[in-house]
Design brief:
heterodimer; A: alpha/beta; 32% helix; B: 355 residues; five-stranded mixed beta sheet; two-stranded antiparallel ribbon
C-alpha cells in the first residue's frame, strides 16, 4: 500500500461515528476525510470528495443509505452499517453485499475493511441489482447543481420523457432529471404509476377521466385539466390496472 | 331462573297476558252457555293466571333437552309426558276450583261442568303447554344466538387488546442494537457514561415488561419509564435533544394505560428531532382537570417531506388502545401547524380517584 486511502463516515449518531473512528485509528494508512450526520450531507460529501471508502448507515435522516447510493451513483468501496433493518438485510444477503451489524467488533470491522479494500475501484455489480430490486420508491431525488430536491412520489402528477432526460411534473412545477422513463417506471409502484404512452407515465391518483380522442384514440384527463395522450398499448395497460 | 320471572316489567306484561287469556276463556264459556258472565270470569281468571305460571315450567324442560341433542323418541316421551302431566293438573285444578265455587253460594259451581267440557278443558290445557314448549324453544334459540354474538365480540376485543399490548411491550430491535452500539462506543470514550446507559437501558426494558401486563398505571410510573428512555436518547442525540417536562403535581396519580406517553416521545424523536440538523425541544405537558388527564406532546418538524408512511402507525396504535379501554370517551387529536407537531390526549379518570 503506497497510497493513503480516504474514508467517509455517514451516521446520524455521534457515538456511532466515534466508534468507527476508533476502529479506523488502528489503520494508519486510512485518512478520515468527512463525517456526515445525515444522508443529504453524505451524498454531497461523496460527490465532492470521492472518498475511497464509505461507511454508510442505512437509516439516516433526510436520505437513507440506499438513496444516497441512488443519488450519487456510487457503487464501490461502500460498507453498510446498520442496527437492524429486516428488509434491507434480507436484500443484502440475497445479493451478497457485505454489511456491519451494530454493535460490531474490531475484528469484524477489520474483516469488512479488508474485503472492501481488495475490491477497491471495482464497481460492485451486486449493488446495482440490489438497488433495482429494492421496494418501490417512496420519494424521488432530483439533483439541481448543489441543491437536492426530494419529491414524495404521491406529489407527482405525471412524468414525461424528453430526449435523454425526464420531466417530472408535480404541483404545477417541472423538475428535470437525467434518467430514462423506463428506468424510473421500473422503480415506481406499478399500482400507482402507469405508462400510458411511450413518453408518459401518469400517477393514477391524479386520473380523473379517460376521454375518447379521435376515432379510436384515448386521452387521460388529470386533475387540474392536463390531457395526456394514451397509446393503444397504454390503454390496455391502464385497463389492466383499474 | 326463568327470564320472565327475573324481570319485573316482563312479569307484569306476562300477568296481564294471562288475565287477557282468562277473559277470552270466560267469554267463550259465556257464549257457550255454560255460565253467566261474572261466574265465568271468576272461574277463568284465577285458573288462567295459575296455569300461566305452570306452563313456564316448559323452560327447564326445553333446556334439559337442547335442540342439538334431541332424539325423536326421547323428545316425544319427555314433551308428551310433561304435556300430559300439566294438562291433567290443569283439569284437576279447574274441577277443584269449580267445586270450590259452591262455597261462593253457586250450587253447581261457577260453570256447568260436564264430560264434554272436561275434554275441551284438557285439550286446551295440553295445547297451551305445547305452545309454551315451542315458544320456549324459540326463546332459548334467541338467547343462544345473543350469547354467542356477545361472546364473540368480547373475545375479539380481548384479542385485540392483547395484540396491541404485545405490540407496545415488544422490544424495538433497532433501538436495542443502536443502544448497545452507543454503549460499545462509550466504553473507551467515557466508561462511567457507558455504565449509566447500560443501567438506563436495563431499567427501561424491565419497567416496560412489568408495566405492559397491567391495564392502567399512575402517570408517575409512566414518567419513571419515560425518564429512563429520555436519558438513553439524550446520550444518543447529544445536544440536539432538549426536553421540557411540565407535569402538574395533581396529574401524577392520574391513571392511563401503560406505555401511552413513551411511544409518543419515541414518535417525536423519530419523526421530529431526528430529521432536524439543529435538533429541537420536545415539550410534554400533563395536567388533571375535572376527572380527566390531559397530556400534550409537541415537537418541531422538518420542512422537507419525510417518509410519512410509518409515522401514523404509532399514533393509530395509541388511538386503538384508548378506544379498546375507554370506548369513545377518550380523546386523541394531532395536528401539524407552524412547523410543530402536537398531539393531545384526554383520558377519563375513574371517579374514586377524585374523591
Amino acid at each position: 500500500m503506497s497510497r493513503r486511502l480516504s474514508a467517509l463516515i455517514a451516521d446520524d449518531e455521534a457515538l456511532a461515528r466515534h466508534l468507527i473512528r476508533d476502529y479506523l485509528s488502528r489503520h494508519i494508512d486510512i485518512e478520515l476525510v468527512a463525517e456526515c450526520d445525515n444522508g443529504l450531507q453524505a451524498a454531497k460529501a461523496i460527490a465532492e470528495r470521492t472518498p475511497d471508502l464509505v461507511f454508510l448507515d442505512i437509516r439516516m435522516p433526510k436520505l437513507d443509505g440506499l438513496e444516497v447510493l441512488e443519488l450519487t451513483g456510487r457503487r464501490s468501496g461502500v460498507i453498510f452499517t446498520t442496527a437492524y433493518d429486516a428488509h434491507a438485510l434480507q436484500a443484502f444477503d440475497l445479493h451478497a453485499v457485505d454489511y456491519l451489524l451494530k454493535p460490531f467488533s474490531q475484528t469484524r470491522f477489520d474483516e469488512a475493511l479488508h474485503k472492501a479494500r481488495s475490491l477497491l475501484g471495482h464497481a460492485a455489480s451486486a449493488l446495482d441489482t440490489l438497488l433495482q430490486s429494492a421496494p418501490p420508491l417512496k420519494r424521488v431525488l432530483i439533483r439541481d447543481r448543489d441543491q437536492v430536491q426530494i419529491l414524495a412520489v404521491e406529489s407527482i402528477d405525471y412524468i414525461e420523457a424528453q430526449d435523454d432526460y425526464i420531466a417530472i411534473c408535480a404541483g404545477g412545477k417541472v423538475y428535470l432529471k437525467t434518467q430514462s422513463l423506463a428506468d424510473i417506471e421500473a422503480r415506481l409502484d406499478p399500482q400507482l404509476f402507469v405508462r400510458v404512452h411511450r413518453s408518459y407515465l401518469i400517477n393514477l391518483a391524479r386520473l380523473q377521466a379517460i376521454e375518447r380522442h379521435g376515432r379510436d384514440g384515448h386521452a387521460a384527463c388529470l386533475q387540474g385539466g392536463k390531457r395526456i395522450p394514451i397509446s393503444r398499448a397504454g390503454y390496455e395497460r391502464i385497463r389492466g390496472v383499474i | 331462573m326463568h327470564p320472565i320471572l327475573a324481570d319485573l316489567r316482563k312479569l307484569l306484561v306476562y300477568v296481564l297476558a294471562c288475565l287477557l287469556a282468562g277473559s277470552v276463556a270466560a267469554g267463550l264459556l259465556w257464549f257457550g252457555g255454560t255460565a253467566d258472565g261474572s261466574p265465568a270470569l271468576a272461574f277463568a281468571l284465577p285458573l288462567c293466571l295459575v296455569y300461566g305460571f305452570i306452563v313456564l315450567s316448559a323452560y327447564p324442560v326445553c333446556r334439559a333437552l337442547p335442540y342439538v341433542r334431541r332424539r325423536p323418541v326421547a323428545a316425544l316421551a319427555l314433551f308428551g309426558g310433561t304435556t300430559l302431566v300439566s294438562a291433567s293438573a290443569w283439569l284437576a285444578l279447574a274441577t277443584a276450583w269449580n267445586v270450590a265455587g259452591q262455597a261462593f253460594g253457586l250450587d253447581a259451581g261457577f260453570i256447568a261442568m260436564n264430560a264434554n267440557l272436561r275434554l275441551i278443558l284438557f285439550l286446551a290445557g295440553a295445547g297451551a303447554y305445547v305452545l309454551s314448549l315451542l315458544a320456549h324453544d324459540v326463546l332459548i334459540a334467541f338467547e343462544n344466538v345473543r350469547a354467542a354474538v356477545a361472546g364473540e365480540a368480547e373475545s375479539r376485543l380481548m384479542a385485540r387488546d392483547a395484540e396491541l399490548r404485545m405490540l407496545r411491550s415488544q422490544i424495538d430491535p433497532h433501538f436495542l442494537f443502536n443502544c448497545l452500539n452507543s454503549i460499545s462506543a462509550l466504553t473507551s470514550l467515557d466508561p462511567a457514561a457507558a455504565r449509566d446507559m447500560t443501567i438506563d437501558l436495563a431499567q427501561f426494558f424491565r419497567r416496560t415488561l412489568a408495566l405492559s401486563t397491567r391495564e392502567t398505571i399512575p402517570l408517575s410510573e409512566e414518567m419513571a419509564l419515560c425518564e429512563h428512555y429520555l436519558a438513553i436518547e439524550k446520550r444518543r442525540f447529544g445536544s440536539r435533544l432538549n426536553v421540557e417536562l411540565t407535569i402538574a403535581p395533581g396529574a401524577l396519580h392520574c391513571l392511563l394505560p401503560p406505555l401511552t406517553l413513551q411511544p409518543l416521545l419515541e414518535n417525536a424523536l423519530k419523526h421530529g428531532i431526528r430529521e432536524l440538523d439543529e435538533g429541537g425541544t420536545v415539550t410534554v405537558v400533563a395536567l388533571a382537570r375535572d376527572e380527566w388527564l390531559h397530556l400534550a406532546v409537541s415537537n418541531p418538524l422538518a420542512s422537507h417531506p419525510a417518509t410519512a408512511s410509518d409515522s401514523g402507525l404509532g399514533l393509530k396504535t395509541c388511538r386503538a388502545r384508548l378506544t379498546t379501554l375507554y370506548g369513545e370517551r377518550a380523546r386523541i387529536v394531532w395536528q401539524r401547524k407552524d412547523g410543530q407537531f402536537k398531539i393531545e390526549l384526554a383520558i377519563p379518570q375513574p371517579k374514586e380517584i377524585e374523591a
